[in-house]
Automatic annotation (TrEMBL):
<dbReference type="GO" id="GO:0006893">
    <property type="term" value="P:Golgi to plasma membrane transport"/>
</dbReference>
<dbReference type="InterPro" id="IPR039116">
    <property type="entry name" value="CCDC93"/>
</dbReference>
<protein>
    <recommendedName>
        <fullName>CCDC93 coiled-coil domain-containing protein</fullName>
    </recommendedName>
</protein>
<feature type="domain" description="CCDC93 coiled-coil">
    <location>
        <begin position="20"/>
        <end position="286"/>
    </location>
</feature>
<dbReference type="InterPro" id="IPR019159">
    <property type="entry name" value="CCDC93_CC"/>
</dbReference>
<dbReference type="Pfam" id="PF09762">
    <property type="entry name" value="CCDC93_CC"/>
</dbReference>
């Protein structure tokens, strides 16, 4: 092997060492970036804890947050272990680079060994990147789960909104029932009027033919009695419905009377309380004045 080949091999080895140093610097940058992100996540979690302590959270929400926080601590521990391993690997790689530089400077290392070391270093770098990416994904997922848990103010807002929706639904239900009742009543009136018109038309068209014979008169009387029975049955049903509505009305009146009495009682108690408060303030002012006079 000539001098030119040796020089070319040394230059190639130096290029490989330079690439290896660049890979190590990239790994160090990734580790620093991961540390910075971890610090940001810790700051956000601290802010979240302060917000939880300030606003207050239900027991159920706290029970959901505790396992998440424990998982976060475990992830922090795992990240610390991964970071220590990365630091150890980086130190080992730096030592290997120094050794390679010395050996390349002396011309003692063949090109094949340098390629093998470079491939191993790249494999270590790739595995470290994968571990860091997996840890970051777990941290982001845990933070998203913590953010999904509603705080006390959000729960109160949801409760208020559901109460408003319930009131709207009840009003709409009462209005719908009222409209259905009106429709059914009008439909019954329509049926009765149609039957009445049909009966009057039948009587008007057949009266002269039926009234002239005894059998026709008997048949007409039977028909009238049948109509009367139907009207009596219909009237009985209407009276039953009226009685039911009357009972409901009486029950509502009793509830209203009880509520009005309770309201008057509350007003009386409130007035007495206000009078006692006024009397207490007056006595306090008198006592303070007597103390100042003494």
């Amino acid at each position: 092997m000539g001098n030119e080949d040796i020089i070319q091999e040394v230059c190639s080895s130096r290029d490989m060492v330079t690439n290896l140093k660049a890979s190590i610097r990239e790994l160090s940058g990734k580790v620093r970036e991961q540390n910075q992100r971890k610090c940001d996540v810790r700051d956000k979690l601290q802010q979240l804890r302060e917000r939880i302590n300030a606003e207050g959270v239900d027991v159920s929400v706290q029970e959901e947050l505790l396992p998440l926080l424990r998982s976060l601590k475990e992830l922090e521990k795992q990240e610390s272990e991964v970071r220590s391993n990365c630091d150890a690997k980086r130190s080992a790689l730096e030592d290997a680079v120094c050794d390679l530089e010395e050996r390349v400077a002396k011309g003692e290392i063949p090109e094949e060994d340098l390629d093998v070391l470079l491939v191993e270093s790249l494999d270590h770098l790739t595995s470290a990147k994968k571990e860091l990416a997996a840890t970051l994904r777990e941290i982001v997922s845990l933070k998203r789960q913590i953010d999904d848990v509603p705080c006390q103010s959000e729960l109160l807002q949801y409760e208020r909104r559901f109460s408003e929706l319930n009131v709207c639904i009840q009003e709409k239900l009462q209005q719908t029932r009222k409209l259905y009742g009106t429709y059914n009543a009008l439909l019954e009136i329509k049926d009765l009027m149609l039957k009445e018109i049909s009966l009057l038309n039948s009587i008007g068209s057949q009266f002269q033919d039926v009234i002239g014979t005894p059998a026709g008169r008997v048949k007409s009387i039977d028909s009238m009695e049948g109509v009367m029975k139907g009207i009596q049955q219909k009237l009985g049903k209407v009276q039953l419905g009226l009685q039911e509505e009357q009972r409901r009305c009486d029950a509502s009146k009793e509830k209203y009377t009880a509520a009005a009495a309770e309201q008057r009682k509350c007003y009386t108690v409130l007035r007495a309380f206000q009078e006692e408060c006024t009397r207490n303030d007056r006595l306090r002012s008198q006592v303070s004045g007597s103390k100042q006079g003494m």
